[in-house]
Amino acid sequence: METPSESAVSSRVSSPPPATFGAGGPMLKQFDRSTASSRKGSQSSTPPITVVGIGNKVAKPDYSEAKIVLAMVGLPARGKSYLSNKLMRYLKWLEYDVKVFNVGQLRRTRARQQAQQAGIRENHTAEFFSHNNEEATRRRDQLAEDSLEMLIQWLKDGGNVGIHDATNSTRSRRAKIEARVAKEKGMSVIFLESVCNDPAIIAANVALKVSSGDPDYKDMSREDAKRDFLRRISEYEAVYETITEPHLSYLRITDVGNQVTVSHINGYLQSRIAFYLMNLHLKPRSIFFSRHGESQYNVEGKIGGDAPLSPRGMQYAKGLPALITDNIGDAPLTVWTSTLQRTIQTAQYLPYNKLTWKSLDELDAGVCDGMTYEEIEQAYPEDFAHRDEDKFNYRYRGGESYRDVVVRLEPVIMELERQENILIIGHQAILRCLYAYFHNLPQADLPYIKIPLHTVIKLTPKAYGCDEERYALPIGAVDTHRPKPGTPQQPHATPNTAREYYGNDK
Ligand code: SIN
């Protein structure tokens, strides 16, 4: 049977002869059908109807077997929420379903309800955290258990990694978590202890807590809030037991970036989590993104290829060093490019160490490589429509999807987390994927993020997100952004580095 795209190809035969490198021309790559059966989509029970292999939408990998309870351990102000948030962003970028269950939020929500229903005054002062206060200790234990129950239910409903963001600071609390999770078939628990011995980091965390509009301290002066929070910490210190239970699956991170202890970590996802956490550090730094200067293909409206820079692209390459050095001064910087000549040419005048990464090469457009969007629409009208329908999941015939690119960029993310100041001279699709990781943008929006030519994007990681600045050089360039069809509002990140307090938890 003739497929719709085959009919499109054969109908071109009677049209005027195609250009040598154009759609249907002799240099157009032919789709090798013999490879189609060797690539199978996900075995997920509910694949999208249109999944038929390559050149079409490809279903998300089946992660339904992944069920992990990740229970945080640590005194207050030791970066537990920071680590929970980082890990959540990373795993969500890889399309795992992850949710943080923060016991402090549950406490506040319940206290607010009690205040409304029974007129009982909310009390979030250190007194509530004293282990000599029996009634409060009972209530805190109950909150931790209720939060764990919600987490387990959420995992049963389809979640992959539930993060129990609480102090879990005693052996008995950890034993309860372990016993409860053991009752659930297919679920495992890992404890993640954050230890911090660096007084400067603890002081910064305390300052962040009391200055960030924390709802526990909303009616207090900063001085009173700080005094109370330090007292809360000492209440916990009085009973704190670091993890020594020899049988537990756990990771202990000491002074983020300094030392990691790994014990009984098993399986792919657990190891991946461990590996990610081992690469984190807290040193202040910035990550710069720039697309290559305008290329000859950009000017001609073609995608892919390995074209050199246009004259305006060369001007950008010459202007870039001054922009970067003005911004970063004497600080060390490493430049990463792809292996394609347009990024290498753009980096050529930069006076810094340079590395080329194959993983940074542009999304492979397969048989459409070297074509214009108009040519693709004409040659493969069905594919073109599928791509517009679901761009993240669409895989070019013989090429890649955005998801494929995310998977191949994972080592780049790992290395970016390990490094300090980095400038990436990359490609539109690649920078969209990296940008979405840093700003926690959903997969559906990712392929439409605006990354204009001749513009440097500077991201500065903060405790709960990234600050962003953009610097455009006044050198004209074509606009290669194709908006999401039928959507007037295009996605854009509104950088938010504030800690979220999830006020709506039930
Ligand atoms: C909190 O209520 O803020 C945290 C409770 C805990 O995990 O000990």
UniProtKB/TrEMBL annotation:
Domain of life: Eukaryota
Top EC class for this record: hydrolase
Domain 6-phosphofructo-2-kinase intervals: 61-284
Enzyme Commission no: 3.1.3.46
A Pfam family: 6PF2K
SUPFAM superfamilies, sorted: P-loop containing nucleoside triphosphate hydrolases, Phosphoglycerate mutase-like
Gene Ontology biological process: fructose 2,6-bisphosphate metabolic process; fructose metabolic process
Amino-acid positions noted as binding substrate in the UniProt annotation, renumbered to this chain: 291-298, 342
Annotated region described as Disordered, given as residue ranges: 1-49, 478-506
One GO CC term, this protein: cytosol
Key words of the record: ATP-binding, Hydrolase, Kinase, Nucleotide-binding, Transferase
Gene3D superfamilies per the UniProt record, alphabetical: P-loop containing nucleotide triphosphate hydrolases, Phosphoglycerate mutase-like
Biased composition (Low complexity): 1-14
Similarity annotation: In the C-terminal section; belongs to the phosphoglycerate mutase family.
Protein's name in the database: fructose-2,6-bisphosphate 2-phosphatase
Organism: Gloeophyllum trabeum (strain ATCC 11539 / FP-39264 / Madison 617) (Brown rot fungus)
Lineage, highest ranks first: Eukaryota, Fungi, Dikarya, Basidiomycota, Agaricomycotina
